[in-house]
Amino acid sequence: MVLGTSSGVGKSLVTAGLCRLLRRRGEQPVPFKGQNMSLNAYVDEDGGEMAYAQAMQAWAAGLTPCAAMNPVLLKPQGHGSSEVIHLGRSVGVSRAEDYYRDWFRAGWLAVRRGLEICQRQQGRLVLEGAGSPVEVNLQARDLTNLRLAQFLRARCVLVADIERGGVFAQIIGTLQLLRPVERPLVAGLLINRFRGQRSLFDEGRLWLEQRTGLPVLGVLPWLGERFPPEDSLDLLERQGHKPKAELRLAVLRLPSISNFSDVDPLAAEATVQLDWLLPGDAVDRYDAVLLPGSKQTMADLKAMRAARMDERLQQYVATGGVVLAICGGLQMLGQHLHDPQGLEAETSGDMEGLGLLPLVTTFRPGKVQRQWSTTTTWPEPGQSCTGFELHRGHTTPSAHDVQPLYTQPGLGWLSPCSRVVGTYLHGCLESGPWRRHWLNRLRSRRGLPPLPTAVGNHAAQRDRLLDRLADALAEDVNLEPLLR
Fold first, then answer.
1. pTM over 0.90
2. What count of Cα atoms within 13 Å lies in the side-chain half-sphere of residue 475?
3. Which tens digit of pLDDT belongs to each residue from 370-397?
4. Distance separating alpha carbons of residues 326 and 332, to the nearest angstrom
């Protein structure tokens, strides 16, 4: 089990790297995180919803992602409440102050059921904790850290982020707060995100080992590769500047942004500078603006209006701008949004959309959760495209001149001028040929030569990055205390 001294220390990537490394050693690793809180989600082959981080760990392990790998998913939706998802299906909404009282028993049953399913893989479970394992006000109701480690007698590695500073206090404080029955579960320490010459930490390493009696299993260097973040706060770390970029694209960072990993394939393009904008920022200097998914479409649309972003986008399109919207962003592009049962808004009602596509969206109970493999009608007809739907709301065209984006109806549309595009297909940018054809349209507007379109999908690039992460672990981490 990979534990962390806090959120954001790199547990998800360390877990993914361990999965890839164990696979290289001839084992079958099986990733598992009992409870996750994230708006970056994935839909498995059975239509089950799970955190994207566990899907990435499954790919690292050579497995098909399965919602049982993340049996409890909490999706914050504002006002101190979260949607509760058990084994891939939405089971209700809980306020933060009520969650551990009302949902603990059902959550633990879901965790146990998820374990039973994952253990059928006949492999080694590689578990990821959540946040800190020693939140003393929550320890009695912990679903995913030491309760799970004790239940499975897991060998734990404690990861600390030296980039944040205070790494000695992080580790000593965490170990001091463990209960006597929990302390023997920790088999070693791992220092993450070290910059510079690692021999400079030799004295600190020795001090930690003498003070804690635990081996420092490794000191991982800072890895410059970008991986899908688990928390939207990590978007602040994704502002990498590319001096030689030829296109500049903006992604609107909505208050309830979700599935932001959809744009990772664009961030990986060497010729593309991707900037994350707040709703009040100017958009006129960008080659295209992307509206990502949203957990609260109508609330985010209100936030855009309050910042006058609706006017900026409308003016941007009127003067020749290009917009690509995904899921919740697609719903915002339309003319009308209807919420008769108050599923999106605090009170039921209607709202005017941005009016950039002739679409009408009506929110209904239940969510659409399914994978798709389809072909495109634009920008290059006949291109294969795969992805998944994950949304609440049914969208229909309100005019005849809107064009379908795919041969499968109801997945996406584009305006007659082909500059405003909306899709329900998460992962559409993963398709290398589709992405390059779209980028080449932008490049043509700038008088730039086209990029090659006979390229692989982003999954291949992600796989190479996972290999590189495993290389770093193999070089810098001694796994033997964990694998005995």
1. yes
2. 9
3. 999 999 999 999 999 999 999 999 999 9
4. 10
